[in-house]
Amino acid sequence: MMDALLHFDHELFLKIHRGLSNGFFDWLMPLMRNRYFWTPLYLFIVVFCIKEYKKKGFYIIGMILLTFAIGDMFSSRLIKPFVARIRPCNDPALVHDIIHRVPCGSGYSFPSAHATNHFAIAVFLIVLFYERWKPVLPLGLAWAFIISFAQIYVGVHYPIDTLAGAILGTTVGLLTAFTYKKFIQHRI
After folding, report:
1. Is the separation of the CB atoms in 104 and 89 below 8 Å?
2. Of the candidates 77, 81, 140, 169, which lies 20 to 30 Å from 131 by C-alpha distance?
């Protein structure tokens, strides 16, 4: 069963990484996974929270940072070293199949910290703002998905890595949003 799942994961990786290869994606996908590309969005979130929510906005920003920290700790510090899955771009079995679009990195692959962190933040923001601003749901999920998809396209993660990161991130985002709503939001 596990061998079949890993085989499927490798095949799906190659369908995305090589099969969808085109000049536009070669330009776009490295940008989508670059943290500096998203700086205007992060700045907008900070300004929006402070402008719209005043003192409460600082708590929201603090919770976003805590959400990121928890997601990153679980994915990068706890799970990755334990599982120790080699990144596809470092896998000797794929050496002739990899298109080097970004530097590979020396860390492990499972789960994707990019997917974990961005799904965690997206879900946290969705839970907090959905009642007031419904478009946060599709926009937040699309944002986290495109970053996760880009990780596969550029060759640094397998699809299962990003799926596991999305599940872990969603869980972290739900837990921190619940914590904020239950213990912080009404006390400010």
Report:
1. yes
2. 169
